[in-house]
Amino acid sequence: DQQVKQNSPSLSVQEGRISILNCDYTNSMFDYFLWYKKYPAEGPTFLISISSIKDKNEDGRFTVFLNKSAKHLSLHIVPSQPGDSAVYFCAARGGGADGLTFGKGTHLIIQP
Amino acid sequence: EAGVAQSPRYKIIEKRQSVAFWCNPISGHATLYWYQQILGQGPKLLIQFQNNGVVDDSQLPKDRFSAERLKGVDSTLKIQPAKLEDSAVYLCASSLEDFSPLHFGNGTRLTVT
To answer: For A4-23, what is each residue's pLDDT tens digit?
Structure first.
């Protein structure tokens, strides 16, 4: 039973345009959400997070939006750059567990 | 600051053999995690330590997997005996405190033949 779902295995976006990565969750007890970025042969690196008491958090080119009623969050990257090409994981914490629950990831490809 | 160190980077073993992975977290990080990432999946938590005590090992297959954290710093994860389905990347992560982001090592890629 997947509690964190990333339904798009891959996404291709032109350089300079906006990239939007989506994530859905089922556990209403999750109270903290994170996005991680992963390059091949490296571990995931933390990108941005949001608490369930907020609906938006922005850090430079990266913005995360949280819609609690829809149990949905999204990561916006504007403008997209070639170095953004990576696998992006959505993760959630809460529901009685301290560890993170991850989605399967979305492979973002930035086209020149 | 130095990142999370893991060794070895790669390991190939035959089924029914044993294997051990080592992790050195970021200095001062009290919480340490081991995750298993099977190809095409997201990382799955195996075990979480707070200092040298186990916080959560509910998803650790205890009949074959074991882990310890020596003196609240380094940690080892062992598999004995290995099965084909254990082929995965094993990621170690640490965090300064609860609710702070996890910092991951580069992982150990295990192939069981």
So the answer is: 999 999 999 999 999 999 99
What tens digit of pLDDT does each residue of B20-40 get? 999 999 999 999 999 999 999
Cβ atoms of residues A82 and A75 within 8 Å: no
The pLDDT of residue A2: 82
Give which of A8, A35, A59, A102 to mutate to test B binding, by max B Cβ within 10 Å: A102
Q: Which residues of A touch B43 (CB under 8 A)?
A: 44, 89, 100, 102
Q: Which of B43, B98, B101 sits opposite A102 (nearest CB)?
A: B43
